Model the fold of this input.
Amino acid sequence: MYMQFHGNISSPNSIGTNELIKQGAKLVTNVQDIFEDYINMV
Done:
């Protein structure tokens, strides 16, 4: 099992990003990551 936290799990400032990760958000590190999803939507 692998777990990753974007921010401090007890910090109110991290609630949004940690919740998105929990829901299966995709990590975007470059423009190619965005294009891959866009192509799949069209």
The first helix runs from residue 15 to 22. The radius of gyration is 13 Å. The mean pLDDT is 80. Helices lie at 15-22, 31-41.
